[in-house]
Structure formats: structure tokens, C-alpha cells
Specification:
The protein is mainly β. The protein has 1 helix and 9 strands; from the N terminus they run H-E-E-E-E-E-E-E-E-E. It has a single domain, classed as Immunoglobulins (Immunoglobulin-like, Sandwich), CATH 2.60.40. The strands form 2 sheets. Strands 2-9-8-4-5 form a 5-stranded mixed β-sheet. A 4-stranded antiparallel β-sheet has the order 1-3-7-6. A hairpin with a 5-residue loop joins strand 8 and strand 9.
């Protein structure tokens, strides 16, 4: 009898956060769980290398132009490919 591993992992489980609203000038990190080195895209284009730290996205002092969809492309432990996205909204917030 052969033993097979079954992985029940959904793309939404591999990226965190799925959505985040942050104030201009604050920092944000996006993590991606992948069994291989993930490929990061920002609005469909490759992410600048300085934003990738330890295979995750790290935006220090984010600005409005950093708002968008960040996509992680990677592989599950069983070798199947996935793509998962997170939306980051960077805005100026005013308080009364």
C-alpha cells in the first residue's frame, strides 16, 4: 500500500493580508507561503527587487503610487502552481 500526501491549501491561504488600507508613509508587509521562490507582480508587472525581502514584499514608507494588486506566483508542496493576490490601498487619512 502506497502512502500519498494530500494538500488542501487554497490560494487565499498562502498570501497575507488579502486587503490592507494603510496611511501614506507607513510600512506594510505581504507574505506568501510557497514551496519554491515566489514570483511577485505589482498590477501585472514584476515587482522592483528592492521591495522583495526574504521572498516577501516589504514596503517601507509607502506612497499612493504603491497602491494596487500584489500577486504571488508559486507552487504548493505537491508541485502544483498557484497565483494569489492582495490589494493594498495607500491613502492620506485625515482625522478630526
Amino acid at each position: 500500500m502506497e502512502l500519498h500526501e494530500i494538500y488542501l491549501v487554497y490560494a487565499s491561504d498562502v498570501i497575507s493580508p488579502h486587503f490592507q488600507l494603510i496611511h501614506v508613509g507607513k510600512s506594510v508587509s505581504i507574505t506568501c507561503e510557497s514551496s519554491t521562490k515566489p514570483v511577485w507582480l505589482f498590477n501585472g508587472h514584476p515587482v522592483k527587487s528592492w521591495a522583495v525581502v526574504d521572498d516577501n514584499i516589504r514596503l517601507v514608507r509607502a506612497y499612493e503610487e504603491d497602491s494596487g494588486v500584489y500577486t504571488c506566483e508559486g507552487k504548493y508542496p505537491n508541485g502544483k502552481s498557484f497565483a494569489a493576490s492582495a490589494e493594498i490601498l495607500v491613502a492620506r487619512m485625515y482625522y478630526n
